[in-house]
Amino acid sequence: MNVPVPTKDDSPRVVVVGSVALDTVTTPAGTRAEMLGGSAVHFAVSASFFTRVGLVGVVGDDFPREHLAFLAARNIDLRGLDIVRGAKTFRWTGSYLRDLNAADTHCTALNVFADFSPQLPAAYRQAPVLFLANIAPALQMHVLEQMSPSCYRICDTMNLWITQNRTDVEEVFRRVHIAILNDGEARMFTGKHNLIAAGRAILAYGVEYCVIKKGEHGAMIFGQDGFFVALPAYPVEDVVDPTGAGDSFAGGFVGYLSACAAHDQMTIRAALRHGIVMGSFNVADFSCDRFRTLTVREIEQRLADYNAKIV
Amino acid sequence: MNVPVPTKDDSPRVVVVGSVALDTVTTPAGTRAEMLGGSAVHFAVSASFFTRVGLVGVVGDDFPREHLAFLAARNIDLRGLDIVRGAKTFRWTGSYLRDLNAADTHCTALNVFADFSPQLPAAYRQAPVLFLANIAPALQMHVLEQMSPSCYRICDTMNLWITQNRTDVEEVFRRVHIAILNDGEARMFTGKHNLIAAGRAILAYGVEYCVIKKGEHGAMIFGQDGFFVALPAYPVEDVVDPTGAGDSFAGGFVGYLSACAAHDQMTIRAALRHGIVMGSFNVADFSCDRFRTLTVREIEQRLADYNAKIV
Questions:
Q1: Among the listed residues B94, B117, B75, the one whose alpha carbon sits nearest the alpha carbon of residue B21
Q2: How many CA atoms lie less than 13 Å away from B223 in the CB half-sphere?
Q3: What is the mean pLDDT of residues B166-191?
Q4: Is the pLDDT of residue B86 over 90?
Q5: CA angle (A223 as vertex; A222, A225 as ends), nearest 5
Q6: Quick check: ipTM above 0.90?
Q7: pLDDT for the residue numbered B9
């Protein structure tokens, strides 16, 4: 059963495949239960400020209608969201009381997400850009097989897959144009503590670019012929909830690339700044609530502020 | 007894007070014994590329003549270096095998440095800029009392003093224009994990600027009226020895300010980039050995590379 909310005729320019979840999160700012979450959601909401996104995921029929309405209102194509009757949505419970940079997971109830086997609607398969959010690398490959070979492919991953399915992660890296990892994952995957060495080692798998996210310390991108950019984070004094910051970063980064229909080094450089700014908005409230009121003008102002004053 | 090497007539533009040491260091690149080290040395050598530095410190008569010759050849004024007959030089032994960002101290033999009571030569007391490297805050205050009240004052500190002499550290902060701390010290001093909040809290002590060094993640500077700049580190893949990186950063930062005879926000912004570049050169070899062959042209090239490509 697919979601019965209205979608526009235009096909998505970016397809994202990942988790759709209900998150219960505790941070120094408080506890919030059953909030809209998941890697595909955080990515899609952020990218929706720049491009038309098609979301591929699965939820149970307990998934609140108001969340579907919010995503549709952000012009996100939900034809790829499977709503399974009688099933329960993936739930994650975690806290950041020890360290705002590292979540402590208290409970992961995969529910319907445990049997996720992404099927892309026909209208998605010619999308020019694909973002593989954090799902098992075998599923990421299953998605790659359904997409047009001409699409520009970007993937995320996580420590679990690096430990348990390393060969599959390597295979995904060989098939994508950009690999995005956080600093801990890059060190784990390469065995190199120095992040410059780690970034270059990942390039050797044949990706065009490798992005290393460093949370409060910003992000770096490595490319062929020694291309390298490092940027600090936009300063946020009151971090309310860091959940989804990395996916919001990816949403700004990939969304901007999609809007430009380019991935040359100049565009990549600008895309990194857009990712950093979108990540900084995400952490200012729980869930992706900051994006409910965010305007394009606010994004432009923060970009100008970042470019002129911070860096 | 003061050092009998020739000094030029011109008085120093920057006075640094801190440790002069013989370091034995183990890193993944190997072990080196009894190398030239100490906070005042690393600062002075780096700053000497931009300005004339007067060094205030103490060593024993076991301090190798070749080190004095090297410092003098860098045009560093050594009239403030006290050489105590029959005494031994401060020695530090440490390693970075666990983490290149954090030294494990194996032995600290203060020797003659235990009784250090800095006395500034008359020719130093009118210097327009003073850098108080990492020494006990009571000694930092003793130095402040000897300097012209018109001098521009910058201080470093360390976790030991924050824990043991917190009130003195606060008093020093009230008397300087710029406080430089690393991220761990800033968190410890303010009790705030968020570095943006920590930086702003230190501003409240009345400093004009607060610099937070983050090692491989670069540096941030906070000023009045919301002034804020964050910059990533210059990428160094082969870190040979991080000892002295923070003091070399300070040397580039303060040396550049001294050369400009200014500390407005535009100058501060450029000074931060000079500090980052000088820190990146320091870690490329043991001790301050990279600076033995470094040329002004190499500094300019790396600055251009950093400004045009990295950030």
A1: B94
A2: 16
A3: 97
A4: yes
A5: 125
A6: no
A7: 54
Nearest to A260 by CA among A129, A132, A95, A151: A129
The pLDDT of B40-54, averaged and rounded, is: 98
What rounded mean pLDDT belongs to chain A? Answer: 95
Q: Chain A partners of B102 at a C-beta cutoff of 8 Å? A: none
Q: What is the rounded distance in angstroms from the CA atom of residue B137 to the CA atom of residue A134? A: 49
Name the residue type at position A154: I
**B193 contact residues in A (CB cutoff 8 A):** 99-100
The one-letter amino acid code at B198 reads A
Q: What is the mean pLDDT of residues A238-249?
A: 96
Q: Is B235 on the interface with A (CB under 8 A)?
A: yes
CB of B191 less than 8 A from some CB of A: no
- In chain B, which residues have their Cβ closer than 8 Å to the Cβ of A197? 237
User: Please, which residues 237-276 of chain B have a Cβ atom closer than 8 Å to chain A?
Assistant: 237-239
- Distances, alpha carbon B298 to alpha carbons B232, B258, B304, B305, in Å: 19, 20, 10, 10
**Domain layout of chain A by residue ranges:** 14-310
Mean pLDDT of A204-219: 96
Which tokens belong to A98? 């020890």
Measured between beta carbons, the chain B residues lying within 8 angstroms of A212 are none
Contact: B217, A220; criterion CB under 8 Å: no
Q: What one-character-per-residue DSSP string does A263-282 give?
A: -SHHHHHHHHHHHHHHHHHH
Q: Do A195 and B214 touch (CB under 8 A)?
A: no
Q: Do B195 and A214 touch (CB under 8 A)?
A: no
A211: chain B residues, CB-CB within 8 Å: none
Cβ distance B230 to A232 less than 8 Å, yes or no, reads yes
pLDDT of residue A100: 84
Measured in angstroms, the CA of A191 and the nearest CA of chain B are apart by: 13
Q: In CATH terms, is domain B14-310 a member of 3.40.1190.20?
A: yes
Residue A24 backbone phi and psi in degrees, to 5 = -115, 115
Cα–Cα distance between B275 and B247 in angstroms, integer?
9
Q: What is the predicted pLDDT for the residue at B2?
A: 46
Q: pLDDT, tens digit, for every residue of B207-243?
A: 999 999 999 999 999 999 999 999 999 999 999 999 9
Asked if A216's CB is within 8 angstroms of B195's CB, the reply is yes
Q: Which of B155, B148, B154, B156 is nearest to B128 (CA)?
A: B148
A98 contact B CB<8A = no
